[in-house]
Amino acid sequence: MKRFLAIAAILVSCSTPAWAEVKTETVSYQVGAQTCKGVLAWDDAIAGKRPGILVVHEWWGLDDYAKKRAEQLAKMGYVAFAADMYGDGKTTEHPKEAAALAGTVRKNQQEWLARAQAGLKVLRDHPKVDGDKLAAIGYCFGGSTSLLLAHHNAGIRAAVSFHGALLVPDTSADRPITAKILICHGAADTFIPEKTIQEVRDAYAQLGVDYQMIYYGGAQHSFTVPDADKKGVKGLRYDPAADRRSWAAMTALFAEVFEK
Fold first, then answer.
1. pLDDT digits over 36-65, tens only?
2. pLDDT band for position 173 (50/70/90)?
3. What are phi and psi of 140, to 5 degrees?
4. What pLDDT digit, counting tens, does each position of 203-216 carry?
5. Are the beta carbons of 37 and 26 closer than 8 angstroms?
6. Mean pLDDT value across the chain
7. DSSP secondary structure string, 43-92?
8. What architecture is the 20-257 domain classified under in CATH?
9. How many Å separate Cα 69 from the centre of its chain?
10. Which candidate, 158, 131, 133, places its Cα nearest to that of 147?
């Protein structure tokens, strides 16, 4: 009987999982004179260094949506950092103000790149992160930011744009684009002109970029954001199928680029 109980105890202990516990921490960092406040997320049950993923918010600023995506990535075993591209954790619910905030950053590409690289540095320097295994993902404004990092060879292995404003890379620049790129695009997105999409594809072909561009039929802008329909902006709509499939495409890409 004692032997049976001992064996049972061993079986129970072997079958009990180590419960994951996602931790989050607000991290202040500087970009010139601007103080930014990003959110770091990681699974405290995992030992050792792991890949790091930069998460860049939509034009609304670093809101709960971007933070929840960082937590999702932490549950998958990554360290994720939701960067603050506007400074002081600024957010807005007003489309005109959001457009102004994003536009202010985008009009100065050096400053835009500096802010993105500063967030990436927080991730790279973290003791739980393998600094050679980094990627960036982003939504809307954040999608174009992830592409900006890829186009400037910021030391990331992959860049993922979800319903992002697409950037045409400079084909005259004397630098290859080494990151693998995934663009997840709504086929019914009225915010991104087809002309721009073709220019991006032509430039990537000229530069020999390893990229995928996936169209999701019927999906509009912000198709991954559950409350997109509540923003009161025509052309924004959540699409659960496109959300699920685009996340799966990202997951597959990360499995590829971070494979041991």
1. 999 999 999 999 999 999 999 999 999 999
2. confident
3. 55, -115
4. 999 999 999 999 99
5. yes
6. 92
7. ETT--S-EEEEEEE--TTBS-HHHHHHHHHHHHTT-EEEE--SSSTT-B-
8. 3-Layer(aba) Sandwich (3.40)
9. 8
10. 158
